[in-house]
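Quick question: what would this complex look like in 3D?
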Amino acid sequence: MTGPTRRETLLLGAAALVPASALAQAETPRRGGVLTVHFATEQRILNPSLQASTGVYIVGGKIQEALLDLDAQGNPVGVLAESWESAPDGLTHVFRLRRGVTWHDGRPFTSADVQFTAMEMWKKILNYGTTLQQFLTEVQTPDPHTAIFKYERPMPQGLLLRALPDLGYISPKHVFETGDIRQNPANTAPVGTGPFRFVQYERGQFIIAERNPNYWRENMPYLDRVVWRVVPDRAAAAAQMEAGQILFSPYSSLTIADMQRLGRDPRFEVTTRGNEGNARTNTLEFNFRTPQLADIRVRRAIAHALNVPFFIENFLGPFAKVGTGPIPSVSTDYYPAGDIPQYRFDQALANRLLDEAGHRRGAGGVRFSLRLHPAPWGEDIALWSTFIQQSLQQVGIRIEIVRLDAAGYLRTVYNDHAFDLATGWHQYRSDPAVSTTVWYRSGSPRGAPWTNQWGWVDPRIDAIIDNAATEVDPARRRALYADFVRAVQTELPLWMPIEQIFVSVFNRRVRNGGNNPRWASSSWHDTWLAS
Amino acid sequence: MRVFKLALRRLAASLPTLLLILVGMFLLLQLAPGDTVDALMAQMGGGDAALAEELRRFYGLDLGIAARLGQYLLRLATLDLGFSAIYGKPVATVILERLPATILLMVSALSFAFFFGLVLGVIAARRVNRWPDTLISTLGLIFYATPSFWFGLMAIVLFSVHLQWLPAGGFSDITQELTGIAALLDIARHLVLPTLTLGLIFLAIYLRIMRASMLEVLSLDFVRTARAKGLSETRVVARHVLRNAMLPMVTLIGLQAGTMLGGSVVVESVFALPGLGRLAYESVVQRDLNTLLGIVFVSALLVIAINFLVDILYARLDPRISADS
């Protein structure tokens, strides 16, 4: 038994109910008020059991609940599950469910809902869920308050518990069991067990949810309503924050300049607090079908030619730092200790490596030309791609930047492989097995975005990845991931030189904001507004 | 009855153009790399390839281009605009939801621009080459040259952030529930800044056209005759010049109604208004072909209708032009 005992779990649960910050302890939460939230990109659906993305959690995560969430320290804490235990072989995981929980339509929440959601949604439709749960064979429901997950191959408890806060949202079986799940109207008018009840969604304008009077946590939530305002323009959203029309803007949705400006204004707090669970790294992806890039000396030369600390200091400011590999430093469980190969800025070395690789400077000092495809999301990516272009010019590599929109970028890079260099974000989702190792594991079908589409295969690294994904011993798993990071930093099939955490902008009236590592996605049951 | 028959004839004559636009649009969007599933994947933050394949089947993308185009045109023949991939509802419903806001913004911005363009144009023409003319012409040039997103943002900074007179965006106040007159006033308050922002550029065009047209008509013989009859200058301008000078303005309205109907993506985005322009932009970015073609279809119909009205208006303004010719 590697997980917390039932008693420990209950203690953890109790600790989570105590407000995290000292400020909140000093004040009595005020009831009432409307929390207005910036909603930058509208999603097709709002159901987090079917789509794992921050844009869905920011709304659906208040209406529907997961089996688990993370507490202030980042440990799994029960929400719809009260406790859990795992068999030593990792093939069976038992979840004991919370009693007396009802759906917003009044029906009781039972293990049948968990079974239905896991088998029909997580395993079949939910992105990242389909991979996580591919070896889930069945969910047994011996009684309405117990769900037993059975796996064909060992599932490490640490992986399951870290993945479930994001990939463990439950939907009501009675609403979804008839008809096509994807076309169910409840996907845009969600029915959940959460602290807020869905009221109205006007596309292109707003979403409203109101206080759930029958919420299972006594006397919660504090807010009367949550209103999400759809504001696609970043500068306009900053103005709405200043006008008091928006009280919270999540996930770095304002421009870097506006975030820095609002950070100096005493009315606002600009912080990464509450987003520690949503780390991302900036990537530099190499296409091995381009002959020059298949040569490791050229890849290393490119890495040495980029002055990452200079770029961060001058363009990204305090919310980014130098990355050391695919596992970011916020991942305390898997961040590797010891010597990991790094690529320091050294133009002379870069030039030497390129010379050694046989790419002499030709006319105008140019060795060769490459196309660079920057992903169209994020101001930092645009800045980073221009920085790459100018830096590589100095070592004799001419870069042509090819800008495409989201659909065009994914198709061109991950399906058509018509790129030389690409740069975007890698999102780290609490455990390397969820969405990190897929960037390196070979055999991903053509067209799967954010996977190894580089034309690069390393059987040794594949083996490490596979072993780590089913290793149930936490210490051995940790060691395997350290091996993994060392290996990919040596081979450099892609490079992740910058580490960032999403930035939240709060109006200071918002209290208890950011009190867990995935706060913007979490349920906001203890959030309140000062008058 | 004659008007009705004329309308039908107009519509029939526009059908080939409409068809050409729709097919062209369909093929043009095929040239853009990526489809709606790629766009969805980008939004979701990824997913495996089997999922993508299943989604392509779900959205009917597994068929060939010709088959999909054929299907679309067949459905259109029964006035079925299809299903929107982004919104998960029939396209007709999606467009209908956006139409009121678009038309409201369009009508208010056009009326504002038309009215003030007319007044300022007349003033400038009557004081031609003197200081009111110089002032108005300079202002017009400034309005015309300034990008509307900047105008919009500055208006928000001044009137919403600093003075706190007007809301910074949205179509209505959603944090409280209003009914009746209060709700109407609330919408009107929300529309002031977007109307000004969108209207100012058009205002600049109208005032220049009006000024030029006034100057031209003022030099014509019948104006001299009117003056020779001893009519007062005000009467000459109001009864004789204005009516004739209006013709180019009416032409312009007919042309610009289409532009405005496509909405202004910029103004709608800055003020977070749910208009057709933003919808069209979203559909292109998300490769939602049905929605985009639906918008093109509805806009084309409306433009045809507006131009028909403009033709009738011509006949009323200038009896020499008959609706038949």
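Answer marked as accepted. The radius of gyration of chain A is 24 Å.
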